[in-house]
Amino acid sequence: MKMKFLFTFLSLCFSTLVFSQEKFDIFFDFNKDIPNEKSALELQKWITENDHAQVLKIYGYCDSVDDNSYNKELALKRIQSTLKTLTENKIQISKSIELIPFGKDFKRSLIQEENRKVTLFYELLKLPVNNVGNEEIPTMGDITAKIERERATLASKFAKAKIGDIITIENIYFQLDTDKIIEKSRPILNELYEIMRKNPKLNIRINGHICCNVEATNSKLSSQRAIAVKAFLLEKQIHFYRLSYKGFGSTKPIFEIPEKNEKERLANRRVEIEIVAN
């Protein structure tokens, strides 16, 4: 009886563990190891919304064309391509991650496009509490005037910029202690989008900085805010290969922390655009 109880208990624990995992599919075009355009956008959206995920397993698949050996090789390339994108975007990867490429040895769909995929298995980790101090937001009237002044001069700054140059965008505002962009900031983001649209060779890195935080290396919120700007551009159909990001926390303040006043906090709390290619 005790043995039966133990077996049942362990079975329930195992079932809970399995069902706590979630999965996400990424699709590829025929004979390609880079996600197709639709899936690439969906993957970036998933990364933005699940930056606290830990990936446990990545399985790669192919359609039924070609032999088992070639298909396994292509499936592995798809896994490696996906893993590279995840690590570049700071998604946590389990130390015991399981990477399995399948050739023809899996239950295939009758629709070939559905077999050209990678499946992520992941779990969501608890989000840490951000400790960013006394962050404040200017009044809406101030925001509107400042954004309009900056919007009018932003294109000329990019026109003069060279690779490696950094352009500070001062008037992207977020809801207090979050990565939610305030609606009034949309005009400056739209201007950034227009600059990217008109300059198809322009590649950028979005750098996020926060104020007030004495724990300088805590970059979580600054990363989330940089990701939010990246997500805005992705939704506008700017290709994800042209966009990267980095959160610096408060490791690169303009003014020493703790700041003396709101003017200094505002200067430290910023989004920068670094020119990667143009």
General description of the model:
With 278 residues, the chain is an alpha/beta fold. It has 2 domains: 22-124, OmpA-like domain (60s Ribosomal Protein L30, Chain: A), CATH 3.30.1330.60; 140-277, 60s Ribosomal Protein L30, Chain: A. The protein is 40% helix and 19% strand. Strands 1-4-2-3 form a 4-stranded mixed sheet, covered by helices on one side. Strands 5-8-6-7 form a 4-stranded mixed sheet. Helix 4 runs parallel beside helix 5 (186-198). It starts with a helix and ends with a strand. The model is unreliable at 1-19 and 129-134 (pLDDT under 50).
Could you say what the CATH architecture of the largest domain is? 2-Layer Sandwich
What is the name of the CATH superfamily of the largest domain?
Answer: OmpA-like domain
Number of helices: 7
What profile does the largest beta sheet have? 4 strands, mixed
> Could you estimate the helical fraction of the residues in percent?
25-40%
By CATH, the topology of the largest domain is 60s Ribosomal Protein L30, Chain: A
CATH class of the largest domain: Alpha Beta
What would you call the shape?
elongated
The count of domains is 2
Helix-strand pattern, N to C? HEHEHEEHEHEHEHE
- Proportion of β residues? 15-25%
Strand order of the largest sheet: 1-4-2-3
Poorly predicted runs are 1-19, 129-134
What class, by secondary structure content?
Answer: alpha/beta
Task: Round the mean pLDDT to the nearest integer and report it.
Answer: 83
| Structure summary, number of beta strands | 8
**Rg on CA atoms, Å:** 23 Å
| N-C termini distance | 72 Å
Organism: Flavobacterium amnicola
Keywords: Membrane, Signal
Signal peptide: 1-20
InterPro entries: Bact_OuterMem_StrucFunc, OmpA-like, OmpA-like_sf
